[in-house]
Amino acid sequence: MAHSISILFYQKSTASKTTKPATIYARITVDSKRSEFSTQHKATNKWDSKLGKMAGSSAEARMVNRHLDDLRTKIYEIYDRLLREDKPVSAQIIRDIYQGKDQEHKMLLELFKEHNDKMESLIGKGYSSGTLQRYNAARTHLKHYLQFTKKRTDIPLGEIDYEFISGFEHYLKSEKNCAHNTATKYIVNFKKIMRMALAHQYIEKDPFFHWKSNWKTKEREFLTRNELNALSQKEFSIGRLEQVRDIFLFCCFTGLAYADVNKLTKNDLVPGLNGETWIKTRRQKTKTLSSIPLLPTAAGILKKYETHACRTQDNKLLPVLSNQKSNAYLKEIADLCGITKSLTTHLARHTFATTVTLSRGVPMETVSKMLGHSSLKTTQIYAQVIDSKIGADMEALQQQEPLIQIPSK
Protein backbone atom coordinates (compact mmCIF):
# COMPACT_ATOMS: atom_id res chain seq x y z
CA MET A 1 0.00 0.00 0.00
CA ALA A 2 1.48 3.37 -1.05
CA HIS A 3 1.82 6.21 1.44
CA SER A 4 2.37 9.94 1.13
CA ILE A 5 5.90 10.70 2.31
CA SER A 6 7.95 13.90 2.48
CA ILE A 7 11.32 14.87 3.95
CA LEU A 8 12.14 18.36 5.21
CA PHE A 9 15.43 19.78 6.53
CA TYR A 10 15.22 22.84 8.76
CA GLN A 11 17.09 24.74 11.45
CA LYS A 12 15.90 24.02 14.96
CA SER A 13 14.67 27.26 16.48
CA THR A 14 15.77 28.04 20.01
CA ALA A 15 14.23 30.23 22.66
CA SER A 16 17.53 31.89 23.58
CA LYS A 17 19.11 34.46 21.29
CA THR A 18 22.67 33.26 20.70
CA THR A 19 25.16 33.56 17.91
CA LYS A 20 25.93 29.83 17.94
CA PRO A 21 25.14 27.94 14.70
CA ALA A 22 21.70 26.29 14.75
CA THR A 23 21.42 22.51 14.42
CA ILE A 24 19.89 21.11 11.23
CA TYR A 25 16.98 18.71 11.80
CA ALA A 26 15.29 16.23 9.49
CA ARG A 27 11.52 15.88 9.57
CA ILE A 28 9.91 12.79 8.03
CA THR A 29 6.18 12.98 7.34
CA VAL A 30 4.22 9.83 6.41
CA ASP A 31 0.46 10.08 5.94
CA SER A 32 0.38 13.39 7.87
CA LYS A 33 2.22 11.88 10.88
CA ARG A 34 5.63 13.43 11.68
CA SER A 35 8.86 12.27 13.26
CA GLU A 36 12.05 14.29 13.44
CA PHE A 37 15.68 13.92 14.52
CA SER A 38 18.95 15.83 14.53
CA THR A 39 21.29 15.41 11.54
CA GLN A 40 24.23 16.29 13.85
CA HIS A 41 25.20 19.13 11.49
CA LYS A 42 25.05 22.87 12.12
CA ALA A 43 24.32 25.62 9.62
CA THR A 44 27.26 28.01 10.03
CA ASN A 45 26.47 29.73 6.72
CA LYS A 46 23.19 31.28 5.69
CA TRP A 47 20.35 28.72 5.63
CA ASP A 48 17.97 28.58 2.65
CA SER A 49 14.64 27.59 4.25
CA LYS A 50 12.85 27.25 0.87
CA LEU A 51 15.36 24.79 -0.56
CA GLY A 52 16.11 23.15 2.80
CA LYS A 53 19.89 23.44 2.50
CA MET A 54 22.81 25.74 3.20
CA ALA A 55 23.23 28.66 0.83
CA GLY A 56 26.46 29.40 -0.95
CA SER A 57 29.19 27.27 -2.54
CA SER A 58 31.75 27.12 0.25
CA ALA A 59 33.43 23.79 0.99
CA GLU A 60 31.45 23.48 4.21
CA ALA A 61 28.12 24.20 2.50
CA ARG A 62 28.85 21.62 -0.24
CA MET A 63 29.82 19.01 2.39
CA VAL A 64 26.69 19.57 4.54
CA ASN A 65 24.35 19.65 1.53
CA ARG A 66 25.89 16.44 0.18
CA HIS A 67 25.27 14.78 3.56
CA LEU A 68 21.64 15.93 3.52
CA ASP A 69 21.17 14.54 0.00
CA ASP A 70 22.62 11.19 1.10
CA LEU A 71 20.33 11.17 4.16
CA ARG A 72 17.29 11.87 1.97
CA THR A 73 18.27 8.99 -0.36
CA LYS A 74 18.68 6.56 2.58
CA ILE A 75 15.28 7.49 3.99
CA TYR A 76 13.59 6.79 0.66
CA GLU A 77 15.48 3.49 0.40
CA ILE A 78 14.16 2.46 3.85
CA TYR A 79 10.65 3.44 2.81
CA ASP A 80 10.87 1.40 -0.42
CA ARG A 81 12.23 -1.63 1.47
CA LEU A 82 9.39 -1.55 3.97
CA LEU A 83 6.88 -1.47 1.11
CA ARG A 84 8.56 -4.38 -0.71
CA GLU A 85 8.62 -6.49 2.46
CA ASP A 86 4.99 -5.58 3.23
CA LYS A 87 5.93 -4.25 6.65
CA PRO A 88 4.27 -1.44 8.63
CA VAL A 89 5.28 2.02 7.44
CA SER A 90 5.32 5.13 9.61
CA ALA A 91 7.54 8.17 10.13
CA GLN A 92 8.64 6.79 13.51
CA ILE A 93 9.55 3.39 12.08
CA ILE A 94 11.62 4.95 9.26
CA ARG A 95 13.39 7.24 11.74
CA ASP A 96 14.19 4.35 14.09
CA ILE A 97 15.55 2.19 11.28
CA TYR A 98 17.78 5.02 10.04
CA GLN A 99 19.10 5.58 13.56
CA GLY A 100 19.75 1.87 14.09
CA LYS A 101 16.83 1.35 16.45
CA ASP A 102 15.10 -1.06 14.11
CA GLN A 103 13.93 -3.53 16.73
CA GLU A 104 10.56 -5.09 16.02
CA HIS A 105 7.85 -2.49 16.60
CA LYS A 106 5.04 -3.62 18.88
CA MET A 107 1.66 -3.69 17.18
CA LEU A 108 -1.67 -2.75 18.77
CA LEU A 109 -3.75 -5.87 18.05
CA GLU A 110 -0.76 -8.07 18.82
CA LEU A 111 -0.37 -6.54 22.30
CA PHE A 112 -4.15 -6.64 22.81
CA LYS A 113 -4.15 -10.39 22.09
CA GLU A 114 -1.27 -10.99 24.50
CA HIS A 115 -3.25 -9.20 27.22
CA ASN A 116 -6.44 -11.16 26.50
CA ASP A 117 -4.60 -14.50 26.42
CA LYS A 118 -3.14 -13.79 29.87
CA MET A 119 -6.57 -12.75 31.12
CA GLU A 120 -8.08 -16.01 29.82
CA SER A 121 -5.56 -18.02 31.85
CA LEU A 122 -6.72 -16.16 34.98
CA ILE A 123 -10.47 -16.79 34.61
CA GLY A 124 -11.74 -17.58 38.09
CA LYS A 125 -8.54 -16.21 39.61
CA GLY A 126 -9.36 -12.52 39.58
CA TYR A 127 -11.14 -12.23 36.23
CA SER A 128 -14.54 -13.39 35.01
CA SER A 129 -15.46 -14.77 31.59
CA GLY A 130 -17.68 -11.72 31.08
CA THR A 131 -14.72 -9.37 31.48
CA LEU A 132 -12.70 -11.38 28.96
CA GLN A 133 -15.63 -11.29 26.54
CA ARG A 134 -15.71 -7.47 26.70
CA TYR A 135 -11.96 -7.18 26.04
CA ASN A 136 -12.22 -9.60 23.11
CA ALA A 137 -15.11 -7.53 21.72
CA ALA A 138 -13.06 -4.32 22.09
CA ARG A 139 -10.16 -5.90 20.17
CA THR A 140 -12.52 -7.10 17.42
CA HIS A 141 -14.00 -3.60 17.06
CA LEU A 142 -10.49 -2.13 16.77
CA LYS A 143 -9.62 -4.71 14.10
CA HIS A 144 -12.71 -3.78 12.09
CA TYR A 145 -12.00 -0.07 12.58
CA LEU A 146 -8.49 -0.46 11.13
CA GLN A 147 -9.87 -2.32 8.12
CA PHE A 148 -12.67 0.23 7.67
CA THR A 149 -10.55 3.39 7.88
CA LYS A 150 -7.01 2.40 6.93
CA LYS A 151 -7.39 -0.94 5.09
CA ARG A 152 -4.80 -2.40 7.47
CA THR A 153 -4.68 -5.54 9.62
CA ASP A 154 -2.73 -3.91 12.47
CA ILE A 155 -1.03 -0.66 13.44
CA PRO A 156 2.20 0.20 15.34
CA LEU A 157 1.56 1.45 18.85
CA GLY A 158 3.53 4.61 18.09
CA GLU A 159 0.93 5.69 15.52
CA ILE A 160 -1.92 5.78 18.04
CA ASP A 161 -2.87 9.37 18.82
CA TYR A 162 -5.88 11.37 19.97
CA GLU A 163 -7.22 11.54 16.41
CA PHE A 164 -7.19 7.74 16.19
CA ILE A 165 -9.00 7.43 19.54
CA SER A 166 -11.72 9.99 18.73
CA GLY A 167 -12.15 8.39 15.29
CA PHE A 168 -12.63 4.99 16.94
CA GLU A 169 -15.26 6.44 19.27
CA HIS A 170 -17.16 7.93 16.31
CA TYR A 171 -16.89 4.62 14.42
CA LEU A 172 -18.38 2.67 17.36
CA LYS A 173 -21.37 5.00 17.54
CA SER A 174 -21.97 5.54 13.82
CA GLU A 175 -21.00 2.23 12.19
CA LYS A 176 -21.53 -0.23 15.08
CA ASN A 177 -24.56 1.60 16.55
CA CYS A 178 -23.12 1.37 20.07
CA ALA A 179 -24.80 3.41 22.78
CA HIS A 180 -22.67 6.12 24.38
CA ASN A 181 -21.81 4.15 27.54
CA THR A 182 -21.14 0.96 25.56
CA ALA A 183 -18.71 2.80 23.27
CA THR A 184 -17.02 4.36 26.30
CA LYS A 185 -16.53 0.91 27.89
CA TYR A 186 -14.75 -0.35 24.76
CA ILE A 187 -12.49 2.71 24.70
CA VAL A 188 -11.66 2.29 28.39
CA ASN A 189 -10.60 -1.30 27.58
CA PHE A 190 -8.45 0.08 24.75
CA LYS A 191 -7.01 2.68 27.13
CA LYS A 192 -5.78 -0.05 29.48
CA ILE A 193 -3.78 -1.63 26.65
CA MET A 194 -2.13 1.70 25.80
CA ARG A 195 -1.30 2.35 29.46
CA MET A 196 0.31 -1.08 29.53
CA ALA A 197 2.32 -0.16 26.41
CA LEU A 198 3.46 3.04 28.11
CA ALA A 199 4.55 1.12 31.22
CA HIS A 200 6.61 -1.27 29.06
CA GLN A 201 8.09 1.73 27.18
CA TYR A 202 6.70 0.56 23.85
CA ILE A 203 5.51 4.16 23.37
CA GLU A 204 6.98 7.47 24.54
CA LYS A 205 3.78 9.31 25.52
CA ASP A 206 0.22 8.50 26.51
CA PRO A 207 -2.18 9.10 23.57
CA PHE A 208 -5.09 9.07 26.05
CA PHE A 209 -3.72 12.07 27.99
CA HIS A 210 -6.38 14.44 26.61
CA TRP A 211 -9.19 11.84 26.41
CA LYS A 212 -11.61 11.72 29.34
CA SER A 213 -14.35 9.15 29.81
CA ASN A 214 -17.79 10.75 29.90
CA TRP A 215 -20.44 8.43 31.27
CA LYS A 216 -24.12 9.23 30.81
CA THR A 217 -26.41 8.30 33.68
CA LYS A 218 -29.29 6.23 32.39
CA GLU A 219 -32.49 5.58 34.28
CA ARG A 220 -32.76 2.05 35.65
CA GLU A 221 -36.00 0.20 34.96
CA PHE A 222 -37.68 -1.71 37.79
CA LEU A 223 -40.98 -3.38 38.54
CA THR A 224 -43.63 -1.57 40.55
CA ARG A 225 -45.53 -3.21 43.41
CA ASN A 226 -48.52 -3.88 41.11
CA GLU A 227 -46.29 -5.50 38.50
CA LEU A 228 -44.65 -7.68 41.16
CA ASN A 229 -48.10 -8.80 42.32
CA ALA A 230 -49.17 -9.60 38.75
CA LEU A 231 -46.02 -11.64 38.27
CA SER A 232 -46.30 -13.56 41.55
CA GLN A 233 -50.04 -14.35 41.17
CA LYS A 234 -49.80 -15.59 37.58
CA GLU A 235 -50.35 -19.34 37.13
CA PHE A 236 -48.33 -21.03 34.39
CA SER A 237 -49.18 -24.27 32.65
CA ILE A 238 -45.58 -24.56 31.41
CA GLY A 239 -43.14 -25.67 34.10
CA ARG A 240 -40.06 -23.91 32.71
CA LEU A 241 -41.84 -20.53 32.79
CA GLU A 242 -42.92 -21.01 36.40
CA GLN A 243 -39.37 -21.98 37.33
CA VAL A 244 -37.81 -18.91 35.64
CA ARG A 245 -40.49 -16.66 37.22
CA ASP A 246 -39.66 -18.05 40.67
CA ILE A 247 -35.91 -17.46 40.25
CA PHE A 248 -36.62 -13.92 39.03
CA LEU A 249 -38.83 -13.21 42.07
CA PHE A 250 -36.14 -14.64 44.35
CA CYS A 251 -33.69 -12.10 42.87
CA CYS A 252 -36.28 -9.33 43.30
CA PHE A 253 -36.41 -10.06 47.05
CA THR A 254 -32.69 -10.68 47.62
CA GLY A 255 -30.99 -8.32 45.14
CA LEU A 256 -28.70 -11.08 43.91
CA ALA A 257 -27.31 -10.83 40.38
CA TYR A 258 -27.67 -13.77 38.00
CA ALA A 259 -24.11 -15.05 38.54
CA ASP A 260 -24.55 -14.94 42.33
CA VAL A 261 -27.90 -16.73 42.54
CA ASN A 262 -26.57 -19.33 40.09
CA LYS A 263 -23.76 -20.30 42.48
CA LEU A 264 -25.83 -20.16 45.67
CA THR A 265 -25.43 -23.22 47.95
CA LYS A 266 -26.49 -24.25 51.48
CA ASN A 267 -23.16 -22.90 52.74
CA ASP A 268 -24.34 -19.38 51.83
CA LEU A 269 -27.27 -19.63 54.29
CA VAL A 270 -26.25 -18.64 57.82
CA PRO A 271 -28.18 -17.84 61.03
CA GLY A 272 -28.52 -14.12 61.77
CA LEU A 273 -28.42 -12.25 65.09
CA ASN A 274 -32.13 -12.75 65.77
CA GLY A 275 -32.29 -16.35 64.63
CA GLU A 276 -33.47 -15.54 61.08
CA THR A 277 -31.75 -16.97 58.06
CA TRP A 278 -29.33 -14.71 56.17
CA ILE A 279 -27.61 -15.04 52.82
CA LYS A 280 -23.91 -14.23 53.01
CA THR A 281 -22.07 -14.59 49.72
CA ARG A 282 -19.28 -12.83 47.87
CA ARG A 283 -20.31 -11.24 44.60
CA GLN A 284 -18.66 -12.89 41.65
CA LYS A 285 -18.17 -9.54 39.92
CA THR A 286 -16.51 -7.49 42.68
CA LYS A 287 -15.72 -10.13 45.37
CA THR A 288 -17.42 -7.87 47.94
CA LEU A 289 -19.59 -9.52 50.59
CA SER A 290 -23.39 -9.33 50.29
CA SER A 291 -25.26 -9.75 53.59
CA ILE A 292 -29.01 -10.21 53.04
CA PRO A 293 -31.70 -11.19 55.56
CA LEU A 294 -33.99 -13.74 53.90
CA LEU A 295 -37.40 -12.13 53.35
CA PRO A 296 -40.52 -14.39 53.55
CA THR A 297 -41.07 -14.38 49.76
CA ALA A 298 -37.48 -15.50 49.09
CA ALA A 299 -37.65 -18.08 51.91
CA GLY A 300 -40.87 -19.49 50.42
CA ILE A 301 -39.22 -19.95 47.02
CA LEU A 302 -36.27 -21.80 48.62
CA LYS A 303 -38.72 -24.10 50.43
CA LYS A 304 -40.60 -24.74 47.17
CA TYR A 305 -37.44 -26.18 45.58
CA GLU A 306 -35.96 -27.95 48.63
CA THR A 307 -36.59 -31.40 47.04
CA HIS A 308 -35.52 -30.41 43.54
CA ALA A 309 -32.76 -32.45 41.89
CA CYS A 310 -30.49 -29.39 41.79
CA ARG A 311 -29.96 -29.80 45.57
CA THR A 312 -28.36 -33.23 45.18
CA GLN A 313 -26.95 -33.18 41.65
CA ASP A 314 -25.32 -29.73 41.59
CA ASN A 315 -25.37 -28.84 45.31
CA LYS A 316 -27.25 -25.65 44.38
CA LEU A 317 -30.22 -24.11 46.18
CA LEU A 318 -32.17 -23.23 43.02
CA PRO A 319 -32.49 -24.68 39.49
CA VAL A 320 -31.10 -21.69 37.56
CA LEU A 321 -31.13 -21.91 33.75
CA SER A 322 -28.54 -20.17 31.58
CA ASN A 323 -28.75 -16.39 31.55
CA GLN A 324 -29.59 -16.41 27.83
CA LYS A 325 -32.49 -18.86 28.27
CA SER A 326 -33.73 -17.08 31.39
CA ASN A 327 -33.89 -13.73 29.59
CA ALA A 328 -35.66 -15.31 26.61
CA TYR A 329 -38.30 -16.91 28.86
CA LEU A 330 -38.71 -13.69 30.84
CA LYS A 331 -39.86 -11.97 27.65
CA GLU A 332 -42.59 -14.63 27.35
CA ILE A 333 -43.50 -14.21 30.99
CA ALA A 334 -43.79 -10.42 30.65
CA ASP A 335 -46.23 -10.83 27.73
CA LEU A 336 -48.38 -13.30 29.68
CA CYS A 337 -48.47 -11.00 32.73
CA GLY A 338 -49.21 -7.85 30.73
CA ILE A 339 -45.91 -6.23 31.71
CA THR A 340 -44.60 -3.92 28.99
CA LYS A 341 -41.12 -3.49 30.48
CA SER A 342 -38.22 -5.52 29.10
CA LEU A 343 -37.72 -8.19 31.76
CA THR A 344 -34.14 -9.35 32.28
CA THR A 345 -32.47 -11.15 35.16
CA HIS A 346 -30.68 -7.92 36.11
CA LEU A 347 -33.93 -5.93 36.28
CA ALA A 348 -34.73 -8.02 39.37
CA ARG A 349 -31.71 -6.48 41.13
CA HIS A 350 -32.96 -2.98 40.27
CA THR A 351 -36.41 -3.91 41.63
CA PHE A 352 -34.91 -5.01 44.95
CA ALA A 353 -32.99 -1.73 45.27
CA THR A 354 -36.01 0.45 44.46
CA THR A 355 -39.46 -1.10 45.03
CA VAL A 356 -38.52 -3.62 47.74
CA THR A 357 -36.09 -1.54 49.84
CA LEU A 358 -35.34 2.15 49.20
CA SER A 359 -38.95 3.17 48.43
CA ARG A 360 -40.06 1.48 51.68
CA GLY A 361 -37.66 3.43 53.86
CA VAL A 362 -34.64 1.13 54.06
CA PRO A 363 -31.54 3.36 54.48
CA MET A 364 -29.23 3.61 51.50
CA GLU A 365 -26.21 2.35 53.49
CA THR A 366 -28.12 -0.83 54.37
CA VAL A 367 -29.20 -1.38 50.77
CA SER A 368 -25.61 -0.84 49.61
CA LYS A 369 -24.38 -3.54 52.01
CA MET A 370 -27.04 -6.01 50.88
CA LEU A 371 -26.30 -5.37 47.20
CA GLY A 372 -22.57 -5.83 47.81
CA HIS A 373 -21.70 -2.47 46.27
CA SER A 374 -18.08 -1.44 46.75
CA SER A 375 -19.10 2.24 46.71
CA LEU A 376 -22.14 4.10 48.00
CA LYS A 377 -22.10 6.14 44.77
CA THR A 378 -23.32 3.04 42.91
CA THR A 379 -26.32 2.71 45.23
CA GLN A 380 -27.14 6.42 44.86
CA ILE A 381 -28.09 5.75 41.24
CA TYR A 382 -31.20 3.97 42.51
CA ALA A 383 -32.10 6.89 44.76
CA GLN A 384 -32.04 9.11 41.65
CA VAL A 385 -34.40 6.64 39.97
CA ILE A 386 -36.82 6.94 42.87
CA ASP A 387 -36.62 10.75 42.80
CA SER A 388 -37.48 10.72 39.11
CA LYS A 389 -40.43 8.41 39.83
CA ILE A 390 -41.67 10.79 42.54
CA GLY A 391 -41.37 13.67 40.09
CA ALA A 392 -43.33 11.80 37.42
CA ASP A 393 -46.06 10.79 39.90
CA MET A 394 -46.43 14.33 41.22
CA GLU A 395 -46.59 15.70 37.69
CA ALA A 396 -49.45 13.31 36.97
CA LEU A 397 -51.14 14.40 40.21
CA GLN A 398 -51.02 18.04 39.16
CA GLN A 399 -53.11 17.19 36.11
CA GLN A 400 -55.99 16.07 38.36
CA GLU A 401 -58.70 18.26 39.93
CA PRO A 402 -57.30 20.23 42.89
CA LEU A 403 -58.49 19.05 46.31
CA ILE A 404 -59.12 22.62 47.42
CA GLN A 405 -59.32 26.02 45.79
CA ILE A 406 -57.24 28.90 47.13
CA PRO A 407 -59.44 32.00 47.12
CA SER A 408 -58.03 34.94 45.20
CA LYS A 409 -57.71 38.31 46.92
UniProtKB/TrEMBL annotation:
Keywords associated with the record: DNA recombination, DNA-binding
Entry's family note: Belongs to the 'phage' integrase family.
Source organism, top-level taxon: Bacteria
PROSITE patterns linked: TYR_RECOMBINASE (PS51898)
Signal sequence annotation: none
PANTHER family xrefs: PHAGE INTEGRASE-RELATED, PROPHAGE INTEGRASE INTD-RELATED
UniProt source species: Leeuwenhoekiella parthenopeia
Protein name listed in UniProt: Site-specific integrase
Domain called Tyr recombinase: residue spans: 218-396
Any Pfam family matching the protein: Arm-DNA-bind_5
